[in-house]
Amino acid sequence: RGGVRPFGIATLLAGFSEEGQPVLYQTDPAGTHSEWKAQVIGGRNAKSLREFLEKNWEEGLEEEKAVRMGVQALLEVVDSGAKNMEICVVRPGGGKAIMDEKDVDAIVKEIEAEAEEGKTSKPAEE
């Protein structure tokens, strides 16, 4: 059957260069690849999440802040908080660690508390 398009996937590959610098590559179904500092793929909110990353990413981001930024982005598209998230931290030297759900949940609660605090601290409109 000619003309039937095969399945294709986009992937994000993370690691470190020989110099120890973090690298992130994206591949797409057409076979092209590109390097990014921060990136999202898939989903209906990819454009707004990409804009969020562009606004919040900064050179030399510490691991804790990078994880938090990733969780913040995921909270925009994931229901039920940490229950539906899996965070893998890639470290220099080939190390990687999947975060425990309780650790991700602590970050989620912190972000949600700050968001709630921001809502209540805004001056009321007259």
How would you characterize this protein structure?
With 126 residues, this protein is of the alpha+beta class. The protein contains 3 helices and 5 strands, in the order βββααββα. The chain has helices spanning 46-56, 63-75, 101-121; strands at residues 11-16, 22-27, 33-36, 88-91, 95-98. The strands form 2 sheets. Strands 1-2-3 form a 3-stranded antiparallel beta sheet, with no helix packed on it. The chain is globular, with a radius of gyration of 18 Å. 6% of the residues are buried.
* DSSP summary: helix tally: 3
Span of the ends, CA to CA:
66 Å
Shape: globular
Number of strands: 5
Biggest sheet layout: 3 strands, antiparallel
Structural class category: alpha+beta
What portion of the residues fall into strands of 2 or more residues? 15-25%
Radius of gyration: 18 Å
Q: Can you give the helix content as a percent range?
A: 25-40%
Strands ordered across the widest β-sheet: 1-2-3
Mean pLDDT: 88
One letter per element, helices H and strands E, the order comes to EEEHHEEH
Oligomer: single chain
Query: Which spans of ≥5 residues are poorly predicted at pLDDT below 50?
Result: none
Briefly say what this structure is:
The protein has 126 residues and is an alpha+beta fold. It contains three helices and five strands; from the N terminus they run βββααββα.
